[in-house]
Design brief:
The complex is a heterodimer of chains A (415) and B (578). Chain A is built from 13 helices and 15 strands. Chain A has helices at residues 4-17, 28-31, 54-67, 73-82, 140-164, 169-177, 188-205, 209-221, 227-239, 301-305, 326-337, 363-369, 398-412; strands at 20-27, 39-42, 86-89, 108-114, 119-124, 167-168, 250-256, 259-264, 272-275, 280-283, 296-297, 340-349, 355-361, 374-380, 388-395. In chain A, α6 (169-177) crosses α7. Chain B is α/β, with parallel strands linked by helices and 578 residues long. The chains are: A alpha+beta (415), B alpha/beta (578).
Chain lengths: 415, 578
């Protein structure tokens, strides 16, 4: 009989010891394992074109236009239906992408290295808020911004990162949690810390001062600048705890706007999925719940690693998204202690007397207490091409965890 | 035709989520079709234009201006809505005093590590699992829930005993721990009396009477009404007794129970006799055959138990134990009594009294058929032989007149190496033998001497029934018997109880090395100020709050939503907590 407690303790220890550092940027095709010319990566568990949510379709159209594989959206859509393009979850390629999470072969990606365990994960550049490809938008202005990002932003950041010798993402997160961030939906402080750390190197490595100013301004004004490196950083933490025999700790949580999916350390790469729920959110002017795409994105890797909704107590400002009060933020975090394995050594919560954030979701506790992980997230429009319509909180569907528990019981003989 | 109304506020900052919240509130007001609340950035202005909420004022805003636009059915609705902006921005939800309620015992235990007790009052079908979880966390359990099967009760109590923990219950209405009441309990002052009760209202009756009589209690340990059933075997009751025995503040112990299994009751009393302090016993429906047996004081009712306990606490009795018994003189083989009676009633009374001390005494005319001595002429084990029965008197005189048969039997019994005690009655008076002691005393002396030669101590005890005015003269008879080495008394009861104590002590002599079952309850921890975790009825938390005891109420829900299959898997996966 396996020692579940021991296995779980080992897994969360790996989560917590992981030290992700942003080292450089590279063309996805050159660094992402298993990626090829005719493949597009997307958020969430695997999905067919037929079941694919609007934002992923939209982002894939945008990606094909950006890659020059199609001249217009109709052609791109035809190509997607043709079967010539392979779709694959980011998580199968050590990647994570926010919202639609579409990563195409020629995109520049951050290289985030877990220097404790030697694990590398990748994520693309953040486009800022509003009408953006990760929300499924693909209009000319969206593509224009992407081209600028590939031509100017990316190379500048790459040079700065390399000149800096690497930026410690975990250290930034630890600080940001003490500055009102949750590490997922609120990254205002972390993005500023990220920008101030990069700025001196941008100034010294950019091709001219105008470029430096433009890049610093873009990074500094985007409260989500660091979201993608944070996600890839969290992925390097949870990847360190994957495939540990006998562990009931969740190593992947993600969704594609159609399904919510999880993976459990002791159950290898098997997906457990359930229909993705609608986010309880506040909507931008002119939008309402009926416009919302069901919950989408790889960004819940932050909650998987012990921050985001789990660290809500550090970010009471976020409770306004659910029309709540600061006490609700505290209670959300306290609830998450009920379903996790450990309290994080690196990420602490001042209000709770610097208690570590709840870390390492245990499927047993989720099922027993009927409490699922709480996630802070953005909301995309359900149709391709529109973009973000709101932000709020969502609870993972119970079915994923119950199915995983049954599978665990089968595999390890607890029936 | 819809009306658009705009309000601009310059130089203010609100968190975007706050603005979205305001926008939602405005859009929900009567007569409002849509609303936009944004800071005046270019992209926001574009957004408003896109949904038909742009006005000249909005177009003129700068990024640090707050723009509020409503689209209303009419002018009035628009004005009413704008008028509410300030109050909506200032709106705070009523902040309840509600502290966080942990969702599980485990996190409640983390929240209140000092809690030694868990009070469980969830529905019976979940109570076993909750109790087991509490034990896993190292907590004593006050199990108020009923509808817990006796099989589960036994399992839980055994698990608890191995861990040095108590499960008080199921269906345990009340308990009092060092001055605090759990569940249904009265306010009883602290004092020198400790109570173990397999009886909820029994505990309340005894403790309230003690309080009314001016005294008080240390602990009132409830066990649940089934604890003294044969199946459960008094697991919790014995733990409670052991706690009170070790507690230096407890000077007197009271044991009370709903009608117990006779066998279990005797087992409990056997332990109670070794408590080293006065123990008042009131087991409902257990016949009281004596008011006192060493340190045990038998009460005739709950009230009597309270009265006795208070009296004993005020005037501590002298407890001598078994120091007056010649126990050390017997060989290890010696364990039996042979009672050779001439009087029928005296023989019956001997049986009756001895059953209060030892479980089995045979007789040729037994009170209880199952103790029939198969052959009246051949003694076995401990037995009472009435030589006045027909089988002995055919063709000869009654033993009150003729000693010959009895003396012959006396020699036989005395020669048996397993015999420790021989009991005889000597009934004098008109009609009896003119000087029975003159024949019996020399025989006794010879028996004792022969036994001594064989390396044994033979205890011979005699009851003499008569007066100093009888022809045989009581004092003369007693003097002869005493001179022969017998222990003599004029009371059959006194002699029987003396014999009973010897037999009981000899019976238990081999059990001195009985291993202690389970782990002893940590008394020190139990005497720390009470803190408890409550799972179930919230009123029990309110009780603790009223008494000033730290507590945590668990926001408990059935595990796995009540799904049996999942619950079963989860149970199997649980490991003991480190």
């Amino acid at each position: 009989m396996v020692d579940i407690e021991k296995a779980n303790a080992y897994v969360v220890e790996r989560f917590m010891e992981a030290r992700p550092v942003a080292t450089t940027m590279a063309k996805a095709l050159d660094v992402v394992p298993g990626l090829h010319e005719n493949m597009l990566l997307h958020a969430g568990p695997p999905v067919t074109y037929e079941r694919m949510s609007g934002p992923i379709k939209g982002a894939m159209i945008g990606a094909l236009l950006f890659e020059g594989k199609a001249k217009n959206p109709e052609e791109a859509d035809k190509l997607l239906r043709s079967g010539k393009i392979e779709f694959s979850p980011c998580h199968d390629h050590m990647c994570t992408g926010p919202m639609a999470g579409v990563i195409s072969p020629s995109q520049l990606v951050y290289v985030i290295e877990n220097q404790t365990h030697g694990i590398k994960c990748f994520s693309n550049l953040n486009e800022g808020r509003g009408k953006v490809m990760r929300m499924g938008a693909y209009s000319e202005d969206v593509l224009e911004k992407l081209r600028w990002m590939e031509a100017v932003l990316g190379p500048t950041v790459k040079a700065a990162l390399e000149a800096s010798g690497g930026i410690d993402v975990r250290a930034i997160l630890s600080k940001a949690l003490h500055m009102g961030d949750d590490g997922h939906n609120r990254l205002d402080a972390a993005s500023i810390l990220w920008t101030t750390q990069l700025a001196p190197y941008i100034v010294t490595t950019a091709k001219d001062t105008a470029t430096a100013a433009e890049v610093i301004k873009f990074l500094g004004e985007n409260a989500l600048s660091i979201l993608n490196p944070v996600m890839a950083g969290c992925k390097t933490m949870t990847a360190a705890g994957e495939n540990v025999e006998g562990s009931t700790v969740v190593t992947v949580m993600t969704r594609n706007g159609t399904d919510w999916g999880i993976r459990v350390s002791g159950l290898g790469n098997q997906w457990f999925t359930a229909p993705s729920p609608i986010v309880k959110a506040l909507y931008f002017p002119g939008f309402s719940e009926k416009d919302a795409c069901p919950d989408i994105g790889d960004s819940v890797i932050t909650e998987t690693a012990g921050i985001g909704g789990f660290a809500m107590a550090t970010a009471p400002a976020l409770v306004t998204f659910i029309g709540g009060e600061p006490r609700d933020a505290i209670n959300t975090t306290l609830d998450m202690y009920e379903i996790t394995t450990a309290e994080h050594k690196q990420f602490t919560i001042p209000f709770l007397d610097f208690r570590g954030t709840p870390t390492g979701v245990d499927i047993r506790k989720v099922v027993e207490k009927q409490i699922t992980p709480r996630v802070n997230t953005g909301v995309a429009h359900k149709d391709p091409g529109v973009g973000q319509v709101g932000a709020g909180v969502v609870s993972a569907p119970m079915k994923c965890f119950e199915d995983a528990l049954y599978a665990f019981a089968d595999k390890y003989g607890y029936n | 035709m819809a009306t658009l109304k705009t309000e601009i506020r310059s130089g203010v900052y609100y968190d975007s989520a706050k603005l979205m919240s305001l926008q939602r509130s405005l859009a929900g007001l009567p007569g409002i079709q849509d609303a936009g609340v944004v800071m005046g950035t270019d992209s926001n202005k574009e957004l408003l234009a896109h949904i038909g909420l742009d006005t000249p004022e909005v177009r003129a805003t700068k990024p640090d201006d707050l723009a509020i636009v409503v689209k209303a059915d009419d002018e009035k609705a628009a004005n009413d809505a704008i008028a509410q902006v300030d109050s909506l921005l200032a709106a705070r939800k009523a902040s309840g005093d509600q502290e966080y309620q942990p969702r599980s015992l485990e996190s409640a235990a983390d929240a209140l590590p000092d809690a030694k007790w868990v009070i469980v009052s969830v529905a019976g079908r979940y109570a076993t699992a909750v109790t087991r979880e509490a034990l896993r966390l190292g907590k004593h359990v006050h199990l108020f829930s009923d509808n817990v099967s006796i099989e589960n009760e036994i399992e839980l109590k055994k698990e608890a005993r191995d861990l040095g923990l108590m499960v008080m219950g199921p269906d345990c209405g009340t308990a009092m721990i060092d001055g605090y009441g759990l569940a249904f309990a009265n306010k009883i002052r602290k004092g020198p009396i400790g109570i173990v009760a397999a009886a909820g209202t029994g505990l309340q009756q005894v403790s309230t009477r003690i309080h009314q009589l001016g005294s008080g209690i240390t602990f009132g340990i409830g066990t649940g009404g089934r604890d003294l059933k044969a199946e459960v075997g008094a697991i919790t009751f014995l733990q409670g007794l052991d706690v009170l025995k070790r507690d230096p503040d407890t000077k007197v112990i009271v044991l009370t129970s709903k009608p117990p299994s006779p066998k279990v009751a005797e087992a409990v009393l056997k332990v109670a006799r070794k408590a080293g302090k006065p123990v008042v016993v009131n087991f409902i429906a257990r016949p009281v055959t004596t008011l006192r047996d060493g340190n045990l004081f038998f009460a005739t009712g709950l009230d009597d138990a309270a009265r006795l306990a208070v009296e004993l606490a005020n005037n501590p009795p002298t407890l001598t134990g078994d120091a007056d018994l010649p126990l050390a003189k017997f060989t290890p083989q010696q364990k039996y009594l042979r009672g050779l009676f001439s009087g029928g009633t005296l023989a019956y009374e001997a049986q009756h009294i001895l059953y209060g001390y030892v479980p089995r005494v045979l007789a040729n005319s037994p009170i209880n058929k199952e103790f029939q001595l198969p052959d009246a002429f051949v003694s076995q084990e401990s037995c009472i032989v009435d030589l006045g029965e027909d089988e002995f008197t055919q063709g000869r005189l009654h033993p009150m007149m003729d000693n010959e048969l009895r003396i012959r039997r006396l020699y036989e019994e005395a020669a048996d190496p397993e015999v420790a005690v021989i009991m005889l009655d000597v009934v004098i008076g008109y009609g009896s033998h003119p000087n029975p002691a003159s024949e019996i005393a020399p025989a006794i002396a010879k028996c004792i001497a022969d036994a001594k030669k064989a390396g044994r101590h033979l205890e011979v005890v005699c009851v003499v029934c008569g007066t100093d005015e009888d022809p045989q003269n009581l004092d003369n008879q007693i003097a002869q018997l005493k001179a022969a080495g017998a222990l003599v008394d004029t009371s059959n009861e006194v002699i029987c109880r003396y014999v009973g104590r010897i037999l009981r002590a000899l019976g238990e002599r081999d059990e001195t090395k009985v291993e202690v079952t389970g782990k002893p309850v940590d008394l020190e921890a139990l005497k720390k100020p009470l803190a408890a975790i409550n799972v179930g009825l919230e009123s029990f938390s309110a009780n603790l709050k009223d008494q000033g005891a730290p507590y945590v109420q668990v926001d408990w829900k059935p595990p796995a939503g009540g799904n049996e299959k999942l619950m079963n898997i989860l149970q199997k996966m649980k490991a003991p907590r480190k």
